[in-house]
Specification:
Order of helices and strands: HHHHEHHHHHHHHHHHEH
Largest sheet: 2 strands, antiparallel
Number of helices: 16
Oligomer: single chain
Strand content: under 5%
Length: 319
């Protein structure tokens, strides 16, 4: 009965992420909750359906494109906008950012932002929810998502956005957009199969490649910043954590790999502080600013660049 109750509570929470059973409200430990792992198992097992639907260049290309578009939604909107407010936009565009980010299947925008703000407040400290320094790679990469206490949205940390009812709604019912996303993919694939058979795709094939395979790559690409970006690479700045700069992770995540830069000054819209540090997300944000969709992009203060120069000079003079 206890297992069935746990499964029921987990299912209800996935339907309504603001629901929290009375007996879970005072749980403060990092208790593993098996039902919490179910959606991630579902996504990974779904990739095996590729052996039934096959592949086509169109489906593979669509999966790659959807990875890039949704990675930008996570890095540019969930991270740099909702978490750090590194630029401004209109209320309708803000909602569009939230909906597009939600197609990544990384929960709602307010949960994502509140969790990330907590990370910056306690980076690599005992209270950090996903620190490899404290709990190791596996926990920081995926294990922390299976913990009951990490599931609820801490609305106190996102009061600036919690005042928008439309954001709260889609954050609370964060399963709606992924379901619609999957339906649209299947529908487009079915239409292409009928009216453009030369593409060699179908509803099921486009669904498997665009919903499962693309999303799994997207999930791990994002989670690598929680785990590997605190384990591999170099640190330009002396921060209070183990954040690192990694060109490889920057390519995978469209610029998020310059993690040590980001932890030194998190309010900037750019994370590649220098021209040679590739930051595709920043380039796209600049384009959006030119088009008038966003504005007031925050830059890197001169004092931060001066600090970088002083640290570089000090390293060269050190014996």
């Amino acid at each position: 009965m206890k297992l069935l109750s746990s499964i029921f509570d987990a299912a209800r929470q996935w339907a309504d992420s603001d629901y929290q059973p009375e007996h879970q409200r005072n749980e403060g430990d990092d208790r593993f909750d098996a039902p919490r792992l179910a959606p991630y198992i579902f996504l990974h097992l779904g990739c095996l359906l590729v052996f039934f639907v096959g592949w086509s260049w169109f489906a593979v290309g669509a999966a790659a494109l959807l990875y890039l578009v949704r990675m930008f939604a996570v890095t540019g909107f969930y991270h740099r906008y909702f978490s750090h407010r590194s630029f401004r936009t209109s209320r309708p565009m803000q909602l569009c950012f939230a909906l597009l980010g939600n197609t990544s299947m990384q929960r709602g925008p307010l949960w994502w932002a509140s969790t990330h703000r907590h990370h910056h407040a306690h980076s690599d400290e005992e209270a950090d929810k996903h620190s490899p320094t404290q709990r190791g790679f596996l926990w920081s990469h995926l294990g922390w998502l299976t913990c009951r206490k990490n599931f609820p949205t801490d609305y106190k940390k996102v009061k600036d956005f919690a005042s928008y009812p439309e954001l709260v709604f889609f954050n609370r019912f964060d399963f709606l957009v992924p379901i619609l996303y999957g339906i649209v993919l299947w529908g487009i694939g079915a239409l292409l199969g009928k009216f453009a058979p030369g593409l060699g795709t179908s509803g099921g094939q486009l669904f498997v490649w665009g919903f499962f395979i693309s999303t799994v790559f997207l999930l791990h690409g994002t989670l690598f910043i929680n785990s590997l970006a605190h384990m591999m690479g170099k640190s330009r700045f002396k921060t209070t954590d183990d954040s690192r700069n990694s060109p490889l992770l920057a390519l995978i995540t469209l610029g998020e790999g310059w993690h040590n830069n980001h932890h030194r000054y998190s309010h900037s819209a750019r994370q590649g502080f220098y021209w040679w540090e590739i930051d595709v997300t920043y380039y796209l944000l600049r384009l959006m600013a030119r088009l008038g969709l966003i504005w007031d992009l925050k830059g890197v203060p001169a004092r931060v660049y001066e600090e970088a120069r002083e640290l570089k000079t000090g390293d060269r003079m050190a014996p």
